Amino acid sequence: MAMLMTELLVDTGSGLTWVQSLPCDSCYNQGDFPYYDRAASKTFDPIYCQDETCVIGTETFYFQDSSSSSSSSLLELVPFGVGTSNQIPESFKGESPGVAGFMRGYGTLLNKLGVNKFSHCFPRDEADTGILSFGEEAKIAGVKLALNERSLNYQASLTNVYVSGVRMVVKYKDVLPANMVFDTGSSVSHLSPQLLDAVVEAVKSALRKYKPLKLDGNELCYNMIDLTSVNMDEVAKVTLEFNYYTRIDLFSYHLWIRDDQINLVCLGFVTTGKDVNIFGNNLMREMNVGYTLDEDDLAMYFNHQHCSI
User: Fold this and answer.
1) CATH 3.30.9.10 fits 9-114, yes or no
2) What is the DSSP letter of 91?
3) Nearest residue to 100 via CA among 120, 71, 123, 72
4) Closest CA to 277 of 189, 168, 204
5) How many other CB atoms are there within 10 angstroms of residue 146's CB atom?
6) Global pTM?
7) pLDDT tens, 211-228?
8) Which of 44, 159, 175, 291 is the residue whose CA sits 20 to 30 A from 79?
9) Distance from chain centroid for Cα 125
10) Is 235 helix (H, G, I), strand (E, B) or coil?
11) Domain 9-114 matches domain 143-304 at the CATH topology level
12) Where are the domains of the chain?
């Protein structure tokens, strides 16, 4: 039986697994990967719904074990979306043909896999290969963060922000605590406008010897030459505190996005103009992130380490 080999973006902010499919009314470039054709699949079974834009069914998945070229596991009746008219959101990078939805909930890919633990370790360089593990193979280690069990998102309460060990001063009322969602499908991290203002001011104060700049949607940029002799992990390290006791340190390779063409580094937080806070995958690089999904132990674990294999 012929199988379609493809790659998917691991997205903890989505519950649906989907790929681009023929006939493509509007599909983005997905590199050398072929488009899925449900008409040619013997295992695709459509789920009928009244809305004509609803294109969903179930499909059989085969997962290749990265440690063995001959070992694979089969997963049947996975809820599966077929995208024939697709657009790339601004936070989406690369040429992945679709998304593997890693949100919790009935009928999701994780639910079908029947695992209560998984972990991922994203390398610093997107061109390198990271690690994704399930069940007993998952690495659960490091700082533990209890999650909000009432949400299917991976969500916790952001209670304080520290810059170089000093608690950030927030000028606006009711900004903190704030809900923050951990979303691997977002390449950059988002803060509400008031919270981003406070973070920008705190970092600018720590780097007050240097002239700040704005660039397009980036609120805070610096000339890389000016910062050549600056240890950003000492001068402007940011620490996020959750639930009033769990702290996650973010280092320069998490926080700053380089643009070598114009010789600038920009703070890796943006705002949508709404009260939205997202811990994106730029903050998860060089960090093993483990998840425990039991109802009485819903948590994430953060462990700084080298992730490339």
Assistant:
1) no
2) T
3) 120
4) 189
5) 15
6) 0.91
7) 999 888 788 999 999 999
8) 291
9) 15
10) helix
11) yes
12) 9-114, 143-304
